[in-house]
């Protein structure tokens, strides 16, 4: 025996009734927004850290330049004294 279908074939049609996916979508959207807020906060913190690092780097370079300048002035003064002694 072969099976037979004894009724009309039905096709599922999309319904326009509200479902619980709307609430789920809102929760997912809220979660997504929170994730975006966290990402934005992380970007802001990284930008602040980068700015701090650049400021510290500039300060160190300036301090080193001042130190080297003083050292060069001291060496120049010693050279002038050495020349004055030979004259």
From TrEMBL:
Tree of life domain: Bacteria
Composition-biased stretches (Low complexity): 1-21
Annotated stretches, region: Disordered: 1-22
Protein name from the UniProt record: Uncharacterized protein
Source species of the chain: Nocardioides fonticola
């Amino acid at each position: 025996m072969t099976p037979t279908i004894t009724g009309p074939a039905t096709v599922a049609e999309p319904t326009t009734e509200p479902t619980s996916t709307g609430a789920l979508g809102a929760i997912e959207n809220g979660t997504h927004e929170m994730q975006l807020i966290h990402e934005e906060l992380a970007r802001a913190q990284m930008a602040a850290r980068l700015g701090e690092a650049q400021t510290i780097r500039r300060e160190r370079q300036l301090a080193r330049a001042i130190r080297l300048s003083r050292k060069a002035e001291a060496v120049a003064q010693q050279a002038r004294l050495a020349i004055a002694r030979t004259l």
